[in-house]
Every structure is written in structure tokens, then in C-alpha cells.
Specification:
Blueprint (H helix, E strand, L loop, with lengths): L1 E3 L2 E3 L9 H15 L4 E4 L13 H27 L7 E6 L12 H17 L3 H6 E7 L15 H14 L8 E3 L1
Parallel strand pairs: 3-4, 4-5, 5-6
Antiparallel strand pairs: 1-2
Helix pairs in contact: 1-2, 2-3
Length: 180
């Protein structure tokens, strides 16, 4: 855990496709800190893929990039609905500009990130859930990573922009795609 200005940033490195891992981590955080203000889901798996890549490789990408995020948000939503978490929570899912287009070799990745954006936007339709949580899909600019070593911006800079968004955004913004 990292502390900054009386706020805590806790990180979870694990298999988000395993709902038990997600639920166990969430319960540990709640039992220790009693509440969760914001959750940032920044998961990504990229394999060079086109139409002819095996379905098993596609499943690995979609399981991490889409279903893993659904596990986290569902776990938080269930904890809110049954009263384990008592405050309104912001859920931020990191998507990609490739959610809007596919480039050569990015078909599985692009599909998974597009599904994620549609899921986040769909959460706004649940009026009861909207009272408990605010959801955002953030599209960061391309940044240096294992996937992209050509980008000019660092992952640290993108993380700072996301943190600035979290601390400045108002509560009346819900379930939209935001490009930072």
C-alpha cells in the first residue's frame, strides 16, 4: 500500500479472471479500511491476433480484458447492494483507443476493450446501481509498455492523469468514455 495525502492506494496483482481471488482481496480491504472510495481496473492482455488465431488465445485476451473487469465491478456492486460497502464507489476501467478501431494484429484486444466500454456505459442504465457507484471508462493516450515501446508518453504520466481525473471529477458524471 502507498499513502498520499491521507489517501491510500492499494494494488492488487493477481488473476482477476478468478472471482474468488477478487472477492478475497475486496473483503481484506473492506475489513481493514472499512470503505473503498475508488477502484481503478487497469488490466490488459495483448496477443498479436487476427481472425485465424486460435479461439483459446482469443479467450485469454477477452477473459482478462473484459471478464476480469466484470468480476471486479460485480464484486463491488454486490458488496454495495448487501451493505458490506456503505459508501458510493467510483469504478474506473482503463480501456484503449483500440476499442474504437482495430489495427493489424489487434483484433482480439480491440474487441475485448470495445466490449468493456459498452459494459461500463450499460451500467448507467441501472438506476439503482447508479445510486451506489459511478463508473467510467478511460481511454488513455498510447503509452510506453510491453505492447508499445514507440509511444512518447510514459505509463507514470498516464497514471498521474488518471489520478488527477479521479480527484477532480464530479459525481454527476457517470458511465461515459473519457479520453485523457
Amino acid at each position: 500500500s502507498t499513502q498520499k495525502d491521507n489517501s491510500r492506494l492499494l494494488t492488487f496483482s493477481g488473476d482477476i479472471t478468478d472471482l474468488k481471488n477478487v472477492n478475497d482481496f475486496l473483503l481484506q480491504v473492506i475489513s481493514r479500511y472499512k470503505h473503498i472510495d475508488s477502484v481503478i481496473v487497469c488490466s490488459g492482455k495483448y496477443i498479436r491476433s487476427d481472425i485465424d488465431v486460435s479461439i483459446d488465445l482469443w479467450k485469454k485476451v477477452v477473459d482478462t480484458n473484459f471478464w476480469g473487469t466484470v468480476n471486479i465491478i460485480s464484486s463491488i456492486a454486490n458488496s454495495l447492494k448487501v451493505g458490506i460497502i456503505k459508501n458510493r464507489v467510483r469504478c474506473i476501467a482503463i480501456t484503449s483507443s483500440l476499442a474504437n478501431k482495430a489495427i493489424d494484429g489487434s483484433v482480439a484486444y480491440s474487441c475485448s476493450k470495445n466490449a468493456l466500454q459498452i459494459y461500463i456505459n450499460g451500467l448507467a442504465l441501472d438506476k439503482q446501481l447508479s445510486k451506489l457507484m459511478l463508473c467510467y471508462a478511460i481511454q488513455p493516450p498510447p503509452f510506453r509498455s510491453e505492447m508499445n515501446n514507440m509511444a512518447q508518453i510514459s505509463a507514470r504520466t498516464v497514471a498521474r492523469k488518471i489520478a488527477n481525473f479521479i480527484f477532480k471529477e464530479t459525481d454527476d458524471c457517470h458511465a461515459k468514455v473519457i479520453k485523457i
